[in-house]
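Final report, section 2: Outcomes. Of the targets proposed, TfoX N-terminal domain-containing protein is the one most frequently requested by collaborating groups, and we therefore present its record in full.
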Amino acid sequence: MAWQKPSAQLSGLLAGALAGLACEMRLTFGCPAFYTPGGNLFCGVFENNIFMRLSEPDREQFLQAFPGSAAFEPMKGKPMREYVVPPPELPAELEKLELWLKRSLDYAASLPAKKKKK
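The predicted structure is given below as tokens.
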């Protein structure tokens, strides 16, 4: 299957849900992705999906709470460790989405900051 451009609708939804939070949007592989002030990726849009980074306990809780969610695999068979994709209906439930995005941001912000490349 050919690569698809990221969903403009999901990109706008995600940017709106993160407005006012301490994060930075950067294009990563041509897709909008959001980073902590320390440079850690915590969420973004890939094709027609939102993805987010969660701690292990949060991932387990998320996968159980939202049937249809899965590990994030930007390349088939190559999941990104710590990242999940919510089911398609979650973005429509903005309050729940914002709660999980905040958890994602908090977790990524707790990780060591990335060193700046020279």
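The chain has three helices and six strands.
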